[in-house]
Amino acid sequence: MAIMVGFASCMRQPQKINYSSFTQGSYFSITYYDEKNRTFEAEIDSIFNEIDNSVSLWNENSIIRKVNRNEDVIVNQIFKDNFEWARKASELSDGAFDATIGPLVEAWGFHYKKELEMTPEMVDSIRHLVDYQKIQIIDDKVVKANPNMTLDFNAVAQGYTTDLIGKFLETKGIYNYLVDVGGEIMARGTKPNGQQWTIGIERPAEHYYDGRSVQESLTLQDKGIVTSGNYRKYIEKDGVRYSHSIDPTTGYPVEHNLLSATVIADNASWADCLATICMVMGKEKASKLLENQDGIEAYFIYVEDGRLATASTKGFDHYLH
Hints:
Structural class: alpha+beta
């Protein structure tokens, strides 16, 4: 008995660790439980730097900026991973997701908040530069059909970053964590008491500067979840709001009643891609597309008759808290 008591007294309870700050133009929050009470702030910061140096459009010296400037550069694994996620999303959606949409996004002003001065002629002149099938990686170099084509991984990079941090934690033997990078979330394992992680879906705001409130609460385990919405990211000119979601097939910001799409998948990278697809396609087309995707659930918030309405895939209610 004395041996058993002594052994029990040496058992350590998992300690809750949280590291939160700002990166990639947004916040991040990483929570995990570790019996050794370890912190990995330096290592996590290094991961963010690797991402920034690889696929950030805000970093003049990143690989993607060099690729877009047609410099002779060897792409790394981070770049190749993002490229492959983007291609998978493009093939699934028949081009509704297209990482070569960069020229259109920049022309519409969403990267650098430029003054919006687009005409049909300008759109037509740019659309021929948008086609994911005309760009590939050969021998670790990007090959373009047209040198004026550019890449934009913003619709997958944060989800990918979330997954990469999660994989790092797992190399340290940590399998109970919640990683949130700008709203792209991966929930792994549970809390020490066995409870799953609780996630909130934001209620769409009328203006980008409005406060945040929760529409629904979910519980998740071993799943990625991402919400994409148009209600905070837009440009307004002459009283007209232009969505930040651009349809690559038309060259114009989307026009439909979907305000936000929340997607649950096995990882945040794929959830990030699918949420973007939903916001381009709209509720009806996106719902039909996701019906045939195993392990994927989605929740839509849209406007109907001037009021907020919701819809979801068949298995989404399983996650409601």
